[in-house]
Amino acid sequence: MGNAVLLLIAGVVVTVLVVSWLIRGRSTPIHPDALRAVLDANGARRCLAALRLFQELARRADEASIAQAWEALELPLLQALPDCPPDAKAELVLALDACALACGNRELDKRIMTLRRGLYPDAP
């Protein structure tokens, strides 16, 4: 009877670990239209489109999708920052903070935070 209980507990633990691994490993790629919407916009509209995308990626906390978007949008977003409305900059800071926190890749985290600090150089 004792061995049966131990086997049952071990089975439950293994099942929980496998399910959590499968859930965390799931990455929904960014739809190309989402990236295109940011890239096709100019100035303030590009900043606002990027803000919406990074807010969604931060909500999902999907590192692979964040990395995919960052590779495509880092430079275009940097170019749009001078035209970014002040309220949108504040929201973008929060979205980029959340995206950076979701990243286990230190290089990607560093690149995101470098741009984020450029929005408000005196902020922590």
Q: What does this entry look like structurally?
A:
- This protein has 124 residues and is mostly helical.
- The chain has one domain.
- It is built from six helices and no strands.
- The chain has helices at 2-25, 32-40, 43-60, 63-80, 86-102, 106-119.
- The longest helix has 24 residues, at 2-25.
List keywords for this structure.
124 residues, mainly alpha, 81% helix
Helix-strand pattern:
HHHHHH
Q: Based on CA inertia axes, which overall geometry fits?
A: elongated
Mean pLDDT: 82
Task: Give the radius of gyration.
Answer: 19 Å
Give a quick account of the main beta sheet: strands, pairing sense, barrel closure.
Answer: none
When the domains are counted, the total is 1
Which band does the percent of strand residues land in? under 5%
> Approximately how much helix is present in the residues?
over 70%
Helical stretch count? 6
Terminal CA distance:
58 Å
The structural class is: mainly alpha
Number of strands: 0
Give the low-pLDDT segments.
none
Concise account of the structure shown:
This protein has helices at residues 2-25, 32-40, 43-60, 63-80, 86-102, 106-119. The chain has 124 residues and is mainly α.
Task: List the topology elements.
Layout: H1 2-25, H2 32-40, H3 43-60, H4 63-80, H5 86-102, H6 106-119
Helix pairs in contact: 2-3, 3-4, 3-5, 5-6
